[in-house]
Amino acid sequence: MRSMNMKGCVLFFVVALLSLGVAAGNAQIAPAKSKTILSADCARFRGPDDSTAMIEIHYGINESGLAYRQDSTGWMATAEVTVVARLKDSVAFADRWLLTHTIKDTSDISRELNLVGVRPIQLPRGEYTLAIIVRDRNSAAKPDSIAFRMPVSPFVTDRMVLSDIEFASVVRKGQGESPFIKNTLEIIPNVGGLFSGSQQCNYYLEAYNLRQGGEGGALAIRSIVRDALGKEVLSWERPRRRVGESAVLVDHFDVSSLHSGTYLLHFIIIDSVGNARAESARKFFVYNTSLGVDSTLMNIGSSIPIAVYSGMTEADLDREYKWARYEVSDAERTQFDGLKGVDAKRKFLSEMWSRRPAGTRDEYLTRVQHVNGTFSSLGREGYRTDRGRVYIVYGPPDDYERHPNESDMRPYEIWTYNNIQGGVMFVFVQRNQGSDFELVHSTHRNELHDENWQRYAQTTQ
After folding, report:
1. Is 2 helix (H, G, I), strand (E, B) or coil?
2. Rg (Cα) of the chain, in Å, rounded?
């Protein structure tokens, strides 16, 4: 059923899959107007066989986050995009390409415009870590990257099942060779699922094995929108005939009546006797300047975590608590150790994050996902390593030096943070071949301090 152009990732404006050398000389460069902002997500669909799934990686690059080099045609930005999927300590998929974006004049740059791309990849079953890295070829700024956990399972064949929901800014009949075309439709992803109050929320998904449980009988498609507390705020139902074994499901709704906040779209296939046969759900966000935030949600900092924890198992909750080891206080640690049962742990984590500033949980877990995908080794998750701890606690460094193979020196790294205590540094050394990098020195007043740290890096002592 599924048709996908596999030529790689193509920008909504201009994408070049090529080997490009940046012209030398005195060409004028217009620096980025803002920090490069990379957004990314993915959606899982049925693969071409029973052992794999098709993963669509969606990403957006803020136009104003790129530097532009002047040439004979105008101003050109060049970005290097890398996608890596890791399975434990091995690389299951990797690809890198250059893309260009050309404008006539730098006054045309918009802070609101995202350059959107899609890259489909096929993967077998596994718990992957997906990383997307963007490097600006016209700038010396450090790359912008996003990493997140991506469980992959082939779709079952013995019952009805739904793909992930893909949010879209545009859904229309497909024309030409656009890589956004699938199943005769052109789907431009809304990367991250953020909609303004003036937009309509478009979404796309696929249903499989529709004839399981009977050739005939009517189906109904029920869509429910819930707010951050799980309260139903919108719902509608549409009939659906069992025409084939699989189907494309496309719909939309107006978000102008929704306050700014986080919502969950819950999509359900219901058979002729009222039984739910397949379900899929996805979080999205609304920014509505005319309505603002719902006043009933203003004093519940745990509103987003409540919705997340409602579907998590006790093992999931225990794992998140372990990840939060650098955030929990001694009193909170004692309290959690005495808890029994999934409900008590859900309540604890929800209340714990509600005591932190809004957004703390999302930022913290994003950092955990990054270090688990970047620094894990020898069966040790990245959050338990020294580099992982520093990254989680202090964030990404403003600058870092890597010294992988200097003469008479073991591999070492120096991370610098310019805005902490007037400027601090962290030094990590790989003291044994194949081992983790250990923190041996820092100028941060609360961290390990050793002015003679070089002795750990020297191969001859």
Report:
1. coil
2. 24
How many domains does the chain fold into?
4
Nearest CA to 66 out of 57, 58, 54, 75 is that of 75
Does the residue 364 lie in any domain? no
Q: Is the dihedral of CA 311, 313, 318, 323 positive or negative?
A: negative
Cβ neighbours around 374 below 10 Å, total:
19
Q: Which of 102, 127, 155 lies at the terminal end of a domain, its last residue?
A: 155
Q: What is the DSSP string of 212-236?
A: TT-S---EEEEEEEE-TTS-EEEEE
Q: Which of 418, 376, 372, 420 is nearest to 399 (CA)?
A: 418
Residues in the chain with pLDDT < 50? Answer: 3-25, 297-305
Q: Read off the DSSP letter of residue 32.
A: P
| Predicted TM-score (pTM) of this structure | 0.61
Q: CA angle at residue 382 from 376 to 388, to 5 degrees?
A: 135
Q: Look at residue 370 and give its three-state secondary structure.
A: helix
Other beta carbons within 10 Å of 146:
18
Q: Judge contact between 147 and 370, C-beta under 8 A.
A: yes
Q: Are residues 325 and 220 in the same domain?
A: no
Amino acid letter for position 98: L
- Distance between CA 395 and CA 141 in Å, rounded? 17
Model confidence pLDDT, tens digit, residues 335-362: 898 888 888 888 889 888 888 877 788 8
Question: N- to C-terminal Cα distance for the chain?
Answer: 65
- At 18-69, the pLDDT tens digits run 333 333 345 688 888 877 678 888 999 999 998 999 999 999 998 888 999 9
Write out the residue range of the structural domain in which residue 21 sits: 1-155
Nearest to 165 by CA among 74, 260, 249: 249
